[in-house]
Known about the structure:
This protein has 107 residues and is α+β, with helices and mostly antiparallel strands. It has a single domain, classed as Jelly Rolls (Sandwich). 21% of the residues lie in helices and 47% in strands. Residues 5-31 have low confidence and may be disordered.
Amino acid sequence: xxxxxxxxxxxxxxxxxxxxxxxxxxxxxxxxxxxxxxxxxxxxxxxxxxxxxxxxxxxxxxxxxxxxxxxxxxxxxxxxxxxxxxxxxxxxxxxxxxxxxxxxxxx
Length: 107
């Protein structure tokens, strides 16, 4: 059941990513950056995903730990481990995120 829920959440995150990246680029005249917000929920004790794009990205892991902030220069792999399995919401904010890959492997 957890695997099915996780798959639906990944699909939802990809739909949100597609909506934000397809709407970005310009705000009627200026060539401003598109900004993406991706929200995912997990019950696992660890997550791993790959983001591609450019600009700065901030990841809030939803467990009170320090947020990760990195510059995307092509692609970056994010890994985070939780002390136990519990429902957590991960929020990703970034400029010009073009791809999210969420592997189906458990570690």
